[in-house]
């Protein structure tokens, strides 16, 4: 799930299953990793692990 800016002052969510579906102006990205993907060595009880990605922004710098 991503939260992205679609107009200057408005954001909305978008769901997807691959990286190509991530909008350019993404402000927040929630990723679900299923069994077989080891992000931090721990798993939730349902077998999924979640990670949140936030962009770094300062002036013209974007990462």
From TrEMBL:
GO terms for molecular function: glycosyltransferase activity. Keywords: Carbohydrate metabolism, Glycosyltransferase, Transferase. The keyword Glycoprotein does not apply. InterPro entries: Glycosyl_hydrolases_36. Transmembrane segments: none annotated. The keyword Glycosyltransferase applies. This is Putative galactinol-sucrose galactosyltransferase 1-like. It comes from Trifolium medium.
């Amino acid at each position: 799930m991503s939260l992205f800016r679609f107009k200057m002052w408005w954001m909305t969510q978008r769901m997807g299953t691959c990286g190509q579906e991530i909008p350019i102006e993404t402000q927040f990205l929630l990723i679900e990793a299923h069994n077989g993907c080891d992000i931090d060595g721990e798993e939730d009880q349902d077998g999924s692990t979640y990670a949140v990605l936030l962009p770094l922004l300062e002036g013209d710098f974007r990462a």
